[in-house]
Design goal:
The complex is a heterodimer of chains A (about 350) and B (about 300). Chain A has 2 domains: about 1-185, no CATH class; about 205-340, no CATH class. Chain A contains 10 helices and 12 strands. Chain A has helices spanning about 5-20, 95-110, 115-125, 175-180, 205-215, 220-225, 235-240, 285-305, 315, 325-335, and strands spanning about 1-5, 25-30, 35-40, 65-70, 75-80, 90-95, 125-130, 155-160, 165-170, 185, 245-250, 255-265. With about 300 residues, chain B is α/β, with parallel strands linked by helices. Chain B has 2 domains: about 10-145, no CATH class; about 170-280, no CATH class. Chain B has helices at about 10-25, 90-105, 140-145, 170-180, 185-195, 200-205, 230-245, 255-260, 265-280; strands at about 30-40, 45-50, 85-90, 110-115. In chain B, strands 2-1-3-4 form a 4-stranded mixed β-sheet. In chain B, helix 4 crosses helix 9. Chain B is globular. The chains are: A alpha+beta (about 350), B alpha/beta (about 300). The interface between A and B is large, with 45 and 45 residues. Bound molecules: iron/sulfur cluster (SF4) (4 copies). One iron/sulfur cluster binds near residues 122 and 147 of chain B.
Chain lengths: ~350, ~300
């Protein structure tokens, strides 16, 4: 189903939701940079820049309390954080690369252990995606099988039109319910044409072949060649919409405190440092190899999906210019070279 | 602000680096050269460690050659094999860091072959590496640079262009603005900035002076600093970072460049540098000092803080 939403009505929709007590989260300027955050009113929204951090934080915050403890004499009192208290949320202005990562994350958060913190936010959030009309040469959604108009992960999906309004695709029951509640703001699609979509320039990867190459190249000169210069920070993982590793720590005093969950990153030396002192990933290239393996092989092995949506954030922010699109392009090339002409690939 | 900065000599500089790197590797003077090569994206540049003369033709130098390569010579980067003498490309600000590392007995001059850059400035950020260099996107450190011609290098490409005259310091203006606030207002400013910190430690990992084999913030026996990106741990981290670099930071501003959350880290560094100048008449420069201002005592030191 498609509807028309004028620019004015789009902002009215958000203000209506906010005054109705719904938490509306959208990109907005925060101490000088665009980040997703709750809006006080719709005009705070900034739609012309990709937020520095991805939309994953709407479901998987940078840091959250999961429990608190208090000790009195011999008595210890534990108090759980109740996911039921999480607010109903509408997440707006989400780019296709951010939105598409959300269902990818469902895999790991609802696997053997059901992470109620993630899943309850997921149930309570309606995602309004937004098509991209510009891309830089760090963007490569089209290389990983997505596109600037991909609706995966969105409940409603907006495509900017020449008249400043939006064409609104209704992609799920949640989306349909939101439209039904505010139906007077929508009308039937008119004659205004969609603005030209962004066109990322990285040629498409053959993800099956890339995975096939990774299956056989845990040891390869590529890792030292590309990642010896990696400085081992958490920047690439933290800005990534799909990276989802976290750490759990207790913070507080002997008497009281909180158990907290916060983002972790495989680039850190500490990530696999055992209590014994042994570290199986004792060098930076081994840590970087894990980043590529997890995204293009392990996650595919386990959940049948790729853990990279081509948002390009890690490419833009890596302090030492490590470019995942360039590395996977190289792997893609090697994978195709080692495929016998006309033969079957390993996959 | 769109006044373009003249970096037309960078082409000649790049060519000279290629020739010199090939020569010193070919003659066996060095075993490796740490320099810059082009990346995939238009205009992008990345650090490279080359070990053969044939690889020298890949080297480049442009306004996107932002990295302080000195970090690769520190013991924090022990994965990088090192043997024999190493060649390294340095801008003046990078050289100040190397000199600081020599003062701290981390490196010896004889181990290095320094290729110095006659520098007119680099980009503040490499998010858009192909942008032409202007007063608007120039790294703030370059506006006030006193190190455009590094001293004491083994080789500096000769150029006949005058280097641009420094511009007004934006750091000094911002420090003056913050000094003019009440403590409560100043605290509110930093609280808002630190609230963005995600503890990615990119700032620490690129810093040539953050060579501790285990950072205090990574210790958990005992846990010295809260690890989570929350007000307590973030504030503690930023105080630890600023204080441990006071009198050591040479001003390459790599921490500020790499921060994905745009936290103005070099403002803290510049403020500390200003205090050290006022209190101990100390400034980071091109001469090796064995004792930094905070590791020695002199009778003329300001003691007014003892009440
Ligand atoms: S790996 Fe990089 S490009 Fe891919 S989704 Fe993550 S941040 Fe974006
Ligand atoms: S690839 Fe870049 S951003 Fe990622 S850990 Fe290494 S240096 Fe940091
Ligand atoms: S601070 Fe000076 S030496 Fe360093 S990059 Fe800028 S102009 Fe060059
Ligand atoms: S680089 Fe920025 S976000 Fe990362 S730890 Fe440093 S200050 Fe925090």
């Amino acid at each position: 189903m498609q509807k028309y939403l004028s620019r004015h009505n789009f902002y009215t929709l958000l203000d209506t939701l906010i005054s109705g007590g719904i938490r509306v989260v959208a990109p907005r300027m925060t101490a000088g940079i665009p980040l997703y955050g709750p809006l006080g009113e719709s005009v705070e929204m900034v739609l012309d820049q990709l937020p520095r951090r991805s939309a994953k934080e709407a479901f998987f915050p940078v840091c959250e309390d999961i429990m608190s403890y208090e000790k009195e004499g011999q008595q210890v009192r534990l108090t759980d954080v109740e996911p039921a208290s999480f607010p109903e949320t509408v997440l707006v202005g989400v780019r296709p690369c951010d939105a598409a990562a959300i269902p990818v994350l469902d895999g790991v958060f609802s696997w053997d252990y059901k992470d109620e913190f993630f899943l309850e936010r997921r149930r309570k959030t309606t995602v309004i995606g937004l098509a991209c009309t510009s891309a830089d040469d760090a963007c490569f959604c089209t290389a990983v099988g997505l596109s600037p108009a991909d609706t995966r992960g969105s409940d409603l999906f907006l495509t900017p039109l020449a008249d400043g309004g939006y064409l609104c695709d209704v992609c799920s029951d949640k989306g349909e319910a939101l439209v039904a509640d505010t139906i007077n703001l929508f009308s039937e699609p008119g004659s205004s044409t969609p603005l030209p979509l962004a066109a990322p320039s990285v040629p498409a990867f053959d993800l099956k072949k890339v995975k096939g190459w990774l299956d056989g190249h845990f040891e390869d000169p590529l890792w030292d060649g590309t990642a010896l210069r990696c400085v081992g920070c958490g920047a690439c993982a933290f800005v990534c919409p799909a990276c989802h590793c976290f750490d759990i720590v207790d913070e507080g005093t002997e008497k009281s405190g909180k158990r907290r969950k916060s983002w972790d990153a495989c680039g850190f030396w500490k990530f696999t440092h055992h209590a014994s002192g042994h570290n199986p990933r004792d060098k930076q290239p081994k840590r970087y190899r894990n980043r590529i393996m997890h995204k293009f092989k392990y996650y595919d092995d386990k959940f049948g999906q790729t853990l990279c949506t081509g948002c390009g954030r890690c490419v833009r922010i890596c302090p030492v210019g490590i470019d995942i699109a360039a590395i996977v392009t190289e792997i893609n090339g090697m994978a195709i070279e080692c495929t016998p002409a006309g033969g079957e690939t390993r996959s | 602000m769109i006044n373009t900065i003249d970096i037309s000599h960078y082409g000649t500089v790049a060519e000279s680096i290629r020739i010199e790197a090939a020569r010193i590797l070919g003659e066996g003077l060095v075993t490796a050269v740490v320099a810059y090569t082009a990346g995939r994206r238009a205009g992008s540049v990345q650090p490279a460690i080359i070990t053969s003369a044939a690889e020298a033709e890949r080297l480049t130098f442009t306004a996107a050659s932002v990295n302080n390569l000195a970090v690769y010579l520190t013991k924090a980067k022990k994965d990088i094999p090192r043997s024999g003498r190493i060649g390294i490309v340095v801008k003046g600000c990078d050289l100040k860091a190397l000199v600081g590392l020599m003062g701290e007995s981390q490196l010896q001059r004889e181990q290095l072959y320094l290729i110095g850059i006659p520098c007119a400035g680099v980009l503040a950020s490499t998010v858009r590496p192909a942008e032409p260099l202007t007063a608007g996107n120039l790294a703030p450190k370059c506006r006030e640079c006193d190190a455009q011609l590094p001293e004491g290098c083994d080789y500096v490409p000769e150029i006949d262009l005058p280097l641009p005259t420094p511009l007004e310091s934006t750091y000094a203006a911002e420090i003056a603005r913050l000094e003019g606030l009440t403590p409560a207002e100043r605290w509110a400013y930093w609280k808002e900035q630190f609230a963005k910190c995600i503890k990615c430690y990119a700032c620490r990992q690129v810093c040539p002076f953050c060579f501790c084999e285990q950072c205090l913030c990574d210790r958990n026996k005992p846990q010295m600093v809260d690890t989570t990106p929350r007000p307590a741990g973030n504030t503690a981290w930023h105080i630890v970072r600023a204080m441990h670099l006071a009198g050591r930071c040479a001003g390459c501003a790599e921490c500020e460049r790499v921060c994905p959350m745009d936290i103005p880290l070099n403002l803290l560094n510049r403020k500390m540098a200003k205090e050290l100048k006022e209190l101990f008449d100390y400034e980071a420069g091109f001469a090796v000092n064995e004792k930094g201002p905070l590791t020695m005592f002199m009778e003329k030191d300001d003691q007014s803080f003892i009440k």
